[in-house]
């Protein structure tokens, strides 16, 4: 398991994830808000951001979902290959940064890391509702943020991994809303049974056994 992340590591990971996950902004989003003049996309709701971040931080859960899509879908070999690349490597051990379980599923306080991005004018956070009763938080990526992502990809190969992994996570989550993602993650028994305030445990061993069983089944079919 990876060690505790630093504020800057969290900031870079979230910038890469937001860059991959944004949807186009609308005129209504940015009307009358000068800080959003250069906004090029938005991630809507903290729940969605937290659920996407969970799969970036937990390669074992991500690989397991790829296997689920493989089994339940049209058995696209690419899904099996991507799951295998994760589970055959040490990624689940080296790149796993567990999150806490709270009332709405996986959660980690992201404010310190997001503050780094806001102070650098790479993204803007906007809340809807009233003081003491926020109903939605949106995260706007600014043009400077996208340019920073391009620079990181070019100059820092290790950090570019977050961009590639975020793209895979967003592809997995395509077409699913925040609530659907939350419900999907709760299907995993280890996740569901984790008590509030406790870190969600690994499922690496179970996912590797599942991968081996699928491969064995394929070998049996081709024998």
Structural class: alpha+beta
What is the averaged pLDDT score? 94
Shape: globular
Alpha-carbon distance between the two ends = 37 Å
Q: Helix amount, in percent?
A: 55-70%
Estimate what percentage of residues fall within beta strands. Answer: 5-15%
Please describe the topology of this protein.
Layout (H helix, E strand, L loop, with lengths): L6 H15 L5 H4 L8 E6 L1 H12 L1 H14 L4 H11 L3 H4 L5 E3 L2 E3 L3 H9 L3 E8 L2 E10 H13 L1 H17 L4 H9 L2 H5 L10 H19 L1
Antiparallel strand pairs: 1-5, 2-3, 4-5
Helix pairs in contact: 1-3, 1-7, 1-9, 3-4, 3-9, 3-10, 4-5, 4-12, 5-12, 8-9
Task: Provide a descriptive summary of the structure in words.
With 223 residues, the chain is α+β, with helices and mostly antiparallel strands. The chain has twelve helices and five strands. The strands form two sheets. The chain has a three-stranded antiparallel sheet. A two-stranded antiparallel ribbon has the order 2-3.
Nutshell version of this structure?
The protein is of the alpha+beta class and 223 residues long.
Task: Give structural attributes.
223 residues, alpha+beta, 3-stranded antiparallel sheet, two-stranded antiparallel ribbon, 12 helices, 13% strand, globular
